[in-house]
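for the recovery benchmark. tokens below, seq after
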């Protein structure tokens, strides 16, 4: 019996072949890229990179702006059997230094403006090839591929072969490589196509970044497995989104997108009359935002819950009650349980640790077997690190996040990583980074610092400037507050809950 090729691109290709000259992407300038274009240009890149010497299983690290050619590169990596390693465009040298050291890519692709500094990092970590790809589509990667034959098959991959490697910063400051297989990505996309009713008639508004699970795997997977079209925006710009909404049927976004739309007087039900579905994720959606959106448009935002290690776990229903403040019901094929400290499932709305199991759950952490064993049990259940409840009807609510992770604008910020940088600054004795409710970002990163006595003390502006030079912008605190001492429990642990309570109203006037 012939085994079906597990390669995710093989499953995309069925729709690509069927759709042919149908627009897959319509850009902001109203030009379009067809499904045939995606197939042809990804084949050309796959051929060029294979001829360059990139081999099956090699990591391809990519830090470039969102563009159609960046999408071609993702598809090329899938079909050629490479492991796609997307990097947030805001990462700085210190962060990239770790990623290249740990992932050991065979190829790094960056913006041309970063080529010189990236060359030094690639040399340091013995990265064999460095190519450039700019936001306008120029660069040494497209130049090199220009004359490559646009002919390339689909490399045979098993379900469990690695398709992508994404990093999630650890609370100790050491990022973890998350290994996602072709099955992980395919099974979840297939599930979401059905759960959210995607079809070839849909037009998805795509304003998300493509270095993150939400925009890369969730949005693209739903579109490519259903043959839907996308209105492709390089980023979230309120005016552009308002202009595109009448042409779309589905929008995916983070809560920040919806609060910014609600802040516009132009946003009303007439712009959304063709829309059948608004989906929110990557950060908690405030019940107030849910209600305001319903009042303004007559539509309920569908909130779902996922993470890098698992893609999507739960979703409010397409048909049925969408409950504000909940992330819905377990998706088909995904088991969700809430357990106590002993690992025993709890019921009746009791708070516990959320665990999930299914084909969506990742293979493990890259070169971290101990950490994998700690979080991924022998029974296949993954401990998410989130605290939650499950009501009698099965709806899951997230009540807190273990380890004090902050989600700002839909992006994860791990406090320890930021604290390590702050604590290295002259004049700083200690710091605690927390998340405070913010109308636009959902949560804003705030640093509470303790100064050394008798020394020159950096002010807020100096601390923020120093951080901007070392870490991605989304991790940089919106506010820096100096206090005399941090609250601690009897074991000496900083009580961040008390800090959050103390500064809870910091952004209320914004």
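predicted aa per position
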């Amino acid at each position: 019996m012939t085994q079906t090729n597990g390669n995710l691109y093989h499953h995309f290709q069925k729709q690509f072949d069927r759709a042919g000259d149908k627009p897959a992407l319509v850009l902001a300038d109203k030009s379009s890229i067809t499904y045939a274009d995606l197939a042809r240009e990804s084949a050309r890149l796959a051929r060029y990179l294979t001829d360059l010497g990139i081999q099956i299983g090699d990591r391809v690290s990519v830090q470039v702006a969102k563009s159609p050619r960046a999408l071609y590169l993702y598809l090329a990596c899938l079909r050629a059997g490479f492991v796609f390693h997307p990097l947030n465009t805001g990462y700085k040298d210190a962060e990239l230094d770790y990623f290249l050291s740990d992932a050991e890519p065979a190829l790094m692709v960056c913006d041309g403006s970063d080529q010189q500094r990236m060359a030094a990092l690639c040399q340091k970590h013995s990265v064999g090839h460095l190519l450039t790809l700019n936001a306008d589509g120029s660069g040494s990667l497209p130049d090199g591929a220009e004359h490559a034959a646009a002919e390339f098959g689909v490399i045979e991959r098993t379900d469990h072969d690695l398709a992508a490697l994404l990093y999630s910063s650890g609370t100790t400051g050491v990022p973890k490589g998350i290994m996602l297989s072709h099955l992980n990505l395919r099974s979840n996309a297939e599930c979401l196509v059905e759960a959210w009713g995607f079809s070839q008639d849909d037009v998805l508004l795509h304003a998300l970044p493509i270095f993150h699970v939400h925009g890369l795997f969730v949005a693209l997977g739903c579109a490519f497995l259903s043959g839907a079209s996308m209105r492709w925006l390089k980023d979230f710009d309120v005016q552009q989104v308002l202009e595109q909404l009448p042409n779309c049927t589905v929008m995916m976004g983070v809560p920040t997108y919806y609060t910014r739309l609600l802040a516009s007087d132009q946003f009303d039900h007439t712009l959304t009359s063709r829309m059948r579905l608004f989906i929110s994720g990557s950060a908690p959606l405030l019940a107030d935002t849910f209600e305001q959106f319903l009042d303004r448009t007559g539509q309920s935002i569908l909130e779902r819950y996922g993470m890098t290690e698992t893609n999507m776990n739960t979703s409010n229903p397409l048909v049925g009650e969408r409950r504000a403040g909940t992330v819905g019901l377990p998706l088909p094929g995904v088991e969700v349980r809430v357990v106590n400290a002993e690992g025993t499932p709890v019921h009746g709305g009791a708070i516990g640790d959320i665990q999930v199991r299914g084909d969506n759950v990742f293979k493990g952490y890259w070169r971290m077997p101990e950490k994998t064993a700690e979080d991924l049990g022998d029974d296949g259940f993954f401990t998410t690190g989130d605290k939650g409840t499950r009501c009698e009807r099965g709806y899951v609510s997230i009540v807190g996040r273990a380890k004090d992770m902050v989600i700002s604008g839909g992006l994860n910020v791990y406090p320890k990583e930021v604290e390590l940088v702050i604590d290295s600054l002259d004049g700083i004795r200690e710091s605690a980074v927390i998340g405070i409710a913010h109308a636009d970002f959902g949560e804003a990163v705030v640093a509470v610092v303790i100064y050394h006595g008798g020394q020159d003390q950096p002010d807020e502006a100096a601390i923020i400037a120093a951080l901007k030079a070392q870490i991605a912008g989304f991790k940089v605190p919106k506010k820096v507050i100096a206090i005399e001492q941090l609250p601690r429990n009897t074991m000496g642990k900083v009580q961040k809950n008390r800090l959050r309570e103390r500064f809870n109203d910091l952004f209320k006037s914004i």
